[in-house]
Specification:
The protein folds into four domains: 91 residues, PTS-regulatory domain, PRD (Orthogonal Bundle), CATH 1.10.1790.20; 65 residues, Alpha-Beta Plaits (2-Layer Sandwich), CATH 3.30.70; 82 residues, Gyrase A, domain 2 (2-Layer Sandwich); 69 residues, DNA polymerase, domain 1, CATH 1.10.150. α1 crosses α10, α8 packs antiparallel against α9 and α9 runs antiparallel to α10. β7 and β8 form a beta hairpin. By secondary structure, the protein is an alpha+beta fold. The protein is elongated.
């Protein structure tokens, strides 16, 4: 990447904001399907940029890219075995249908033997999970009969039935779907819908140094703020370039630096960077104006007017560009200048 020199006093924040704001206003709010994951609509374009800069804990489309450990990365069958351990399997994914009797607290689940064989799960495993939830079970052929132990009202019984069908039987919680894909070099990797880095790293056969998630907060919790900073910059860059726009990476990295400056990922809104600014005027200029002025008055805050927003607000020259430089003239030199002006007149 080409290096650029930055002059002292250059308005890098304004330039970075413009570099993201301009293409963002032109982005088509379209969605696309990730290769091989037809059921998962991936958030992209402006909605994805807003997710990133707001530092949302639960992105709409969390996705993981999992590389395999050396020795099995080109063995499709072994990679498939790893995939089975990763993809979460719920009771609802192993049945053909169900019937409920809310009055008597009875529910019947019709098992799908093909799906159970595909995930290598037997009826006994399903029954043990349901019994641990707090219900009695009985197997008749391919049907599991379930009775709620505790007498509950109709609403509570209905909720219990829904929770039973949502019980995890195998795999990693949070990974709704996992598929095997192949790279150009012939190595196989796994792409998932849903994210759970901690759970994935416990699976044997996964390359623990190359598990990637687009969930920035989860990256920070697992790997630290520097990894989160790199993920923010990378996700912003890939989102913008995917829409056909070109933005210099240094602008994106500056935004990532600002979001991670406090040692944790902070959004750009009033609950993040804007709300943590030192200047009272800068905070008030963004949102909740009255609240900031009242609090500043109560706690006797002082504003030294060192930033951009607060100086614009009061009509003072901003400390960037030419406003960053202050010139002083010596008294003797000033006398000489004045005398020359008089002589010229």
């Amino acid at each position: 990447m080409k290096e650029f020199s930055i002059q002292s006093g250059e308005a890098v924040g304004v330039v970075a904001a413009e570099s993201i704001g301009e293409p963002s206003t032109q982005m088509l709010l379209r969605v696309f399907h990730s290769a091989g994951i037809s059921s998962a609509v991936v958030t992209t374009g402006l909605p994805r940029i807003l997710e990133i800069i707001d530092a949302r804990k639960n992105p709409k489309s969390p996705i993981m890219h999992i590389n395999m450990a050396k020795g099995i990365e080109k063995n499709y069958e072994k990679v498939r075995e790893v995939r089975k351990k990763i993809e979460e399997v719920k009771v609802s994914g192993l049945i053909k249908g169900f019937t409920e009797n809310l009055k008597s607290g009875l529910m019947e689940l019709e098992l799908d033997r093909e799906k159970m064989a595909q995930h290598e799960i037997n009826a006994r495993s399903v029954m043990s999970k349901i019994e641990a939830f707090g219900a009695d079970t009985e197997l008749e052929g391919d049907t599991i009969k379930i009775k709620i132990k505790k007498k509950e009202n109709l609403k509570a019984t209905r909720i219990s039935f829904v929770n039973i069908r949502g019980l995890p039987v195998g795999g990693i919680p949070g990974i709704d779907k996992a598929i095997v894909e192949q790279a150009e070099d012939g190595a196989f990797f796994i792409t998932t819908v849903g994210s759970n880095i901690k759970g994935v790293l416990d699976i044997e056969g996964v390359d623990k140094e190359k598990a990637y998630s687009n969930n920035i907060v989860e990256i920070m919790n697992m790997y630290g703020v520097e990894a989160a900073r790199n993920t923010i910059a990378r996700e912003l860059y890939s989102t913008i370039t995917a829409e056909g726009f070109t933005t210099n990476f240094r602008h994106l990295s500056l935004i990532a630096d600002a979001m991670c400056f406090y040692g944790a990922v902070k959004g750009v809104g009033r609950h993040g960077i804007a709300g943590l600014k030192e200047s009272v005027f800068a905070r008030a200029a963004f949102e909740e104006t009255v609240k900031h002025f009242v609090n500043a008055a109560i706690f006797s805050e002082r504003d030294n007017l060192r930033g951009v927003a607060e100086n614009i607000l009061i009509g003072k020259q901003v400390p960037v560009g030419t406003g960053f430089v202050k010139l002083a003239v010596k008294k003797d030199d000033l006398k000489k200048i004045k005398s020359k002006d008089k002589a010229n007149k």
